[in-house]
Amino acid sequence: MLGREIYFQRREVLKKKLGKGVVILPGNNESPRNYKDNCYSFDQDSTFLYYFGMDIPSLVGVIDIDNNKEYIFGTDFTLDDIVWMGEQKLLKSYAEEAGVENFIEMSEFEKFAAQLKADKREVLLIPQYKADNVMKLSKALGLDPFKYDEHTSLDLIKAIIEQRNVKSQLEIDELEKAVNITKEMHLTAMKTVKAGMKEYEVVAAIEAVAKKYYGSTSFFTIFTKNGHILHNHGYDNTVEDGDMIVLDCGAKSREGYCGDMTTAFPVNGKYSDKQKDMYSLLIEMFEKAEEMVRPGINYKDVHLAVAKVLTEGMIKRGLMKGNADEAVKAGAHAVFFPHGLGHMLGLDVHDMENLGEDLVGYESFPRDMQFGLKSLRLARVLKEGYVFTIEPGIYFIPELVKRWKAAGKFMEYLNYEKIEEYFGFGGMRYEGDFVITADGARRLGDKMPKYYNEIEEIMKK
C-alpha cells in the first residue's frame, strides 16, 4: 500500500467533486479456474485499489459523503483459512492502513444497503465488468441485474476519470518502476530469441522477468512472428531466420501500476534492407508524435499527423499515390495502420476502460467511426500529468488488402500491386510510455533502444 494519507486524500478529493451521496465501490473476488479453491491470479479492481489500496479479494468500500464516513465490508479470515494460509492480519488493520475507521463484516452489507434504500439515500455506482459484483450489488440494492448499468452514476464516473487521469508524482514514480521492468522484459527477449525456438520458449523468459520483481504482467503478452495480426496470443510457431518479431508486453508493479511497450526485431539480430526501410519509417512516425505531444494538443491531431508521415513515406516508396492530406482524410492509410496511436495508462493498461472508453479517452465530441480512426482510444486534449502510450504501427494484412482491392477501394491512393509484394512481410509497431509535463512530455523509464542499429547491437550473439 502507498500510505494512509494517500488514500485518505484521494477519497477527500472525490467527496469534494461530488458533494453528496453514498459511493459504493466493490473490489474484485477470486475467480475459480475450475473449482472454488483453484483460482486464477487475483487482480484487484483498479478503482477500488486507487481509493482503498487493499489488494485483498471480496471487499466492498463505501464512501458516505453526506455523513463523512467511510466503510470497508469484508469477511475476516477464519481458523481454517489460517491453517492453509498462515497467520493473517485482521481486515480491520488493513482498513486502518487505508485510513478507513469503520470495518464491518460482509454479512451486514445487505442490511446496510437496504437501509440506504429505505432512507432514500442517493447511491452512486460505477459500471461493473464482473458478473458476481453485478449480482452482489443488485441483490443488496434491489436492482434488476440485467439493467444494472441504468443505475450507474455518470457524475461519479466522470469525477473518477477526471481525478485518475492526472497522475501524481508518486504514481509517476510507480509507473516508471513498471516501465523499467517492462524494458528488461524486452531486452531479455532480444537476447534470448534465436532461430529454431518456439515462441512460447521466449515468452517464458519474458514473463519470468516480471515475476523476478514479485510483479506480474499487465496484460496477455503478445510475442509473434506474425506481426500483421495485431493481437496474436498464440505462441506455438517456430521462429526462423529472417522472421520479424513483434513483442507487445508490460509489467505490473506490486502497487498495481502498469507498463506497456512494443518493439519489433528480427530473429537473427540483423534487419534486412526491406525491414530496415519500413522500420525507419515506423520510427519517423513515432518521433513525429514525440515531437508534438504537449499540454493543450488534442491527441487525435497527433494521430492524424503521424498518419500523414506514414502516407508520405508510402508515397515515396511507391505503395501509395496522390495527395497525402487527401489520402489521410479519406482513411486510405489505414490499410497499413488500422489502429489508434495510443491510450491512457495507469492502474490498468488501458486505464479505466471499464468506466467507458469514450469517457476516458474522449471528451464532449463523438468518436470518428472511419476505419482505423474508430480504434483510436485517446482523442482528448492532453494535460499535465496525463500518462499515455505512443504506438504507431505498419502492417501488411493480406486479407484486408485483398478485400479492399476486390471492392475497388481507394484505387486513387493505393498501389495494390506494389503492396502485394509485401505479403509475408508481417507487421511492426513501436510503443513507449509518456507523461505530459508543464511544457512538453517525457518518456518514462530508462533509455530504451529505438533505432535499428541500437537493437542490432543488443542482439549481437
UniProtKB/TrEMBL annotation:
- The enzyme's first-digit EC class, named in words, is hydrolase
Identify one Gene Ontology CC term for this UniProt entry. cytosol
Which EC numbers does the record give? 3.4.11.9
Q: Give UniProt keywords alphabetically.
A: Hydrolase, Manganese, Metal-binding
Signal peptide span: none
* Cofactor(s) needed: Mn(2+)
> Which GO terms fall under biological process for this protein?
proteolysis
- Superkingdom of the source species: Bacteria
For the Aminopeptidase P N-terminal domain, which residue ranges apply? Answer: 2-132
* Record's catalysed reaction(s): Release of any N-terminal amino acid, including proline, that is linked to proline, even from a dipeptide or tripeptide
UniProt cross-references to CDD domains, sorted A to Z = Prolidase
Q: Which family does it belong to?
A: Belongs to the peptidase M24B family.
Protein name, please? Xaa-Pro aminopeptidase
Organism encoding this protein: Fusobacterium ulcerans 12-1B
Q: What is the lineage of its organism?
A: Bacteria, Fusobacteriati, Fusobacteriota, Fusobacteriia, Fusobacteriales
